[in-house]
């Protein structure tokens, strides 16, 4: 189901859309993806606040209450799946700096699907495309995803399932569509935002909740060598929750997540509702 501004359609790909929209022409907008369980959005308030904040960072004025109405209208009762909310600057004249004449474009798409947890393990390969920590696209979920797309294509062409992106200094930043965690004993480490990591919702949740599952968690800059020395590696995002990495730079890792970590993710899926 798709909702575009005030119009709702059951058709997956058919909606009227202004072809001068800056989101379409310039990737001038932001988005958010969340997991829906039983018709409810996991960590809903955090997702809505992050999306409104990302829009504000780009100078796009949209209220969190508008986004909540948008989300509620498109998610069917009792459904499981993925929800994507998109906000663009709206239609505008030609040119980068031209202001728009109207309101931002708001779009919601709900995709029904049953997602396993934990998902199957992945092999990660290092991308040659560097992630710029000073760019707004590294800190906010903008529509500009060309680097991520090309990094993933590069990784898949090399026989991997997911791409690992580095900062210009060679520090670990993130995967193409997920945050990276390394396990060293009972300590969980993830790269800081200053190294190019996206401040993901599940990443932030795990940093706060890990202690309850017997882990210490924190931010730490990681090199390729340090990551290869980890006892385990896993990825986090709002759909995968926690996904194990089975291979990296020629080394194999345990394809199963620690049971305590699996349990923590299950807790999120069963009770992570803040609405």
From TrEMBL:
Pathway: Amino-acid biosynthesis; L-leucine biosynthesis; L-leucine from 3-methyl-2-oxobutanoate: step 4/4; Amino-acid biosynthesis; L-valine biosynthesis; L-valine from pyruvate: step 4/4; Amino-acid biosynthesis; L-isoleucine biosynthesis; L-isoleucine from 2-oxobutanoate: step 4/4
Keywords: Amino-acid biosynthesis, Aminotransferase, Branched-chain amino acid biosynthesis, Transferase
Enzyme nomenclature, EC number: 2.6.1.42
Enzyme class: transferase
Transmembrane segments: none
Database matches in SUPFAM superfamilies: D-aminoacid aminotransferase-like PLP-dependent enzymes
One BP term from GO: branched-chain amino acid biosynthetic process
Molecular function GO terms recorded: branched-chain-amino-acid transaminase activity
Family annotation (InterPro entries): Aminotrans_IV (IPR001544), Aminotransferase-like (IPR036038), BCAT-like_C (IPR043132), BCAT-like_N (IPR043131), Class-IV_PLP-Dep_Aminotrnsfr (IPR050571)
Catalytic function, reaction form: L-leucine + 2-oxoglutarate = 4-methyl-2-oxopentanoate + L-glutamate; L-isoleucine + 2-oxoglutarate = (S)-3-methyl-2-oxopentanoate + L-glutamate; L-valine + 2-oxoglutarate = 3-methyl-2-oxobutanoate + L-glutamate
Keyword GTP-binding: no
Pfam families associated with the record: Aminotran_4
Function: Acts on leucine, isoleucine and valine.
Protein family membership: Belongs to the class-IV pyridoxal-phosphate-dependent aminotransferase family.
PANTHER family reported in the protein's UniProt record: AMINO-ACID AMINOTRANSFERASE (PTHR42743), AMINODEOXYCHORISMATE LYASE (PTHR42743:SF11)
Name this polypeptide is given: Probable branched-chain-amino-acid aminotransferase
């Amino acid at each position: 189901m798709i909702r575009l501004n005030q119009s709702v359609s059951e058709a997956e790909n058919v909606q009227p859309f202004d072809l001068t929209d800056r989101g379409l022409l310039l990737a001038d907008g932001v988005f958010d993806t969340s997991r829906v369980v039983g018709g409810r959005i996991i960590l809903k308030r955090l997702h809505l606040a992050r999306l409104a904040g990302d829009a504000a960072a780009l100078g796009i004025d949209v209220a969190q209450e508008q986004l909540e109405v948008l989300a509620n209208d498109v998610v069917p009762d009792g459904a499981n799946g993925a929800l994507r909310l998109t906000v663009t600057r709206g239609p505008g004249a030609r040119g980068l700096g031209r202001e728009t004449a109207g309101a931002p474009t708001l779009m919601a798409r709900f995709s029904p699907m049953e997602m396993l947890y934990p998902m199957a393990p992945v092999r990660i390969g290092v991308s040659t495309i560097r992630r710029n920590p000073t760019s707004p696209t590294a800190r906010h979920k903008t529509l500009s995803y060309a680097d991520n797309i090309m990094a993933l294509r590069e990784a898949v062409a090399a026989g991997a399932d997911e791409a690992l992106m580095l900062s210009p200094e060679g520090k670990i930043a993130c995967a193409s569509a997920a945050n990276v965690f390394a396990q060293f004993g009972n300590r969980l480490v993830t790269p800081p935002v200053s190294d190019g990591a996206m401040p993901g919702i599940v990443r932030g949740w795990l940093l706060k909740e890990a202690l309850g599952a017997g882990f210490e968690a924190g931010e730490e800059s990681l090199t390729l060598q340090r990551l290869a020395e980890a006892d385990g590696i896993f990825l986090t995002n709002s759909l995968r929750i926690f996904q194990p990495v089975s291979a990296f730079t020629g080394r194999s890792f345990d394809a199963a997540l620690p049971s305590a970590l699996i349990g923590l993710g299950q807790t999120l899926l069963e009770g992570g509702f803040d609405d």
